[in-house]
Q: What sequence folds into this?
């Protein structure tokens, strides 16, 4: 979709020789346009809920919230949080909130924080086998490991599910998270013994902890946020696998990639490793082009382009936000 959007933008600009937008500028404008639409979806969903509460919305094909919710749900991810370590290498009691560095996705809004209460075992692998966890020092049967349990590599911060118990010392897993190293730390958790944590403020948690009757427990945990850190309560040394976050992530930055020709213009090449298409649905292609044109009009100081794009955006009715 990104190449089609760029061709539309260039076609509008070149029609009256308004100017040329370089690939780097286009990528910057595309990033901003996508973020505008992304945040619009949350605002639109809020408006729809208000309308539904007023009984002014229909059902079936007239259900206004369903298509918006389906778009937002494509950005929901679930990741185990990575522990924060002290300068001496010890695990602290805090976890990193989702980011491109820790989970591969930058978190926009936390939806649910879950605590995995039943850690079956914490150990190290003794040999390497494809799609297996092998530890000759333990008996997985006696540990109570079952199909569906979660295995987490404590060295690479990756996880997998148990799909078969091959022997007392070997588990088959669905992702090859122990491909190279012997001696990687691992943890095994039950996938069913989970408690949902309640978010509390820093001021409230101290008040709750002051009484045995209100203090968070393993069955009724809580958490607080500090800048880029999440602290669970009750507190204990953080282990990768203790805490899992369901959250809405930011869309990935779009990037139009190309190959340069000696005597010509850049040619679109989606095989480049840093290529990234828009993550908005196909019906948003028109809106993306119009928003990018507004940025282009400011860039080339051509008010006509900006006015045209804004007028087309107002005229285009499929967006709920434009109808309000």
A:
């Amino acid at each position: 979709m990104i190449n089609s959007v760029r061709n539309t933008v260039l076609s509008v600009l070149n029609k009256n020789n308004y100017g040329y937008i370089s690939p780097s500028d286009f990528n910057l404008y595309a990033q901003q346009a996508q973020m505008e639409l992304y945040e619009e979806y949350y605002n639109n969903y809020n408006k729809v809920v208000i309308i539904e509460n007023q009984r002014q919305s229909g059902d079936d094909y007239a259900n206004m919230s369903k298509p918006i919710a389906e778009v937002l749900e494509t950005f929901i991810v679930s990741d185990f949080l990575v522990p924060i370590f002290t300068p001496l290498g010890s695990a602290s009691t805090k976890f990193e909130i989702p980011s491109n560095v820790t989970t591969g996705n930058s978190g926009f809004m936390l939806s649910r924080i879950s605590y995995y209460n039943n850690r079956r075992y914490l150990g190290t692998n003794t040999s390497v086998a494809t799609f297996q966890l092998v530890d000759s020092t333990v008996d997985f049967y006696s540990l109570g490991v079952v199909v569906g349990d979660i295995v987490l590599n404590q060295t690479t911060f990756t996880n997998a599910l148990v799909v078969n118990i091959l022997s007392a010392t070997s588990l088959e897993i669905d992702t090859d998270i122990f491909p190279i190293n012997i001696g990687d730390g691992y943890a095994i958790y039950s996938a069913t013994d989970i408690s949902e944590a309640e978010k509390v403020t820093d001021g409230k948690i101290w008040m709750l902890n002051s009484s045995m009757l209100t203090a968070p427990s393993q069955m009724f945990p809580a958490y607080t946020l500090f800048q880029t850190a999440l602290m669970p309560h009750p507190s204990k040394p953080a282990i990768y696998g203790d805490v899992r976050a369901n959250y809405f992530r930011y869309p990935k930055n779009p990037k139009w990639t190309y190959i340069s020709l000696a005597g010509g213009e850049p040619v679109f090449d989606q095989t480049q490793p840093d290529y990234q298409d828009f993550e908005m649905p196909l019906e948003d292609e028109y809106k993306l082009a119009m928003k990018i044109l507004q940025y282009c009009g400011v860039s080339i100081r051509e008010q006509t382009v900006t006015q045209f794009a804004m007028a087309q955006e107002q005229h285009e009715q499929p967006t709920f936000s434009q109808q309000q």
Remarks:
- Residues 320-324 have pLDDT under 50 and may be disordered.
- The first strand starts at residue 76 and ends at 80.
- Residues 2-74+255-289 form one domain.
- The longest helix spans residues 23-53.
